[in-house]
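Quick note —
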Amino acid sequence: MAEVVQTAAGMWRAVNPRESMPWLSSLTVPWWIAGGWALDLFVGVQSRLHRDLDIGVFRRDVLQVLSALHSWEFFEAKGGELTRLREGGLPRADVNSLWVRPAGTTQWTLELMLDESVGDRWIFRRQPLIQRSLSLAVRHNPEGIPYLAPEIQLLYKARLVRTQDQIDFNLIAPRLAPEARAWLREALAAEDPDHKWLSALDARSAL
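Predicted structure written out below.
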């Protein structure tokens, strides 16, 4: 049974990635597990309790996702406020997250993350020159569950570096393949040339 996590915006039903597979199995567009669960899928074990389950999709495909979850409710999450997405409507261009729950329930189940793309390339919305081909941006665990590549997930976490983000970096960075580590270093340097993770990545590359 999934645990329930209380937050200021209500309760979250802390589901795991396996539970999401039937909900999204009808999709013919790319989707992937994001957030802390993506890092756990990369490592192969659950490292901690996750408040929610983040699902990443390309913004261009959001209508297909809404259709696949037609019996669910969607709320735009922006600036600490939740706004119900009208039926048949699209999220506003400046909204990057949707909170999702089955209609008639009170517990949030998924956070839908809207990512940018050009052709078959994932685009970092905060710095569009930072890109990754879809074949490298999305990986699959042995069960076939798609998840966001760990170097990309760490890039998202690098903006604020909360305590848990630093713990995640310490766990994941040593496990990155040389090419993935080099990509993360270049992306971090492009966004923040003084980021504290750069020296750690350099030291790991020198080993």
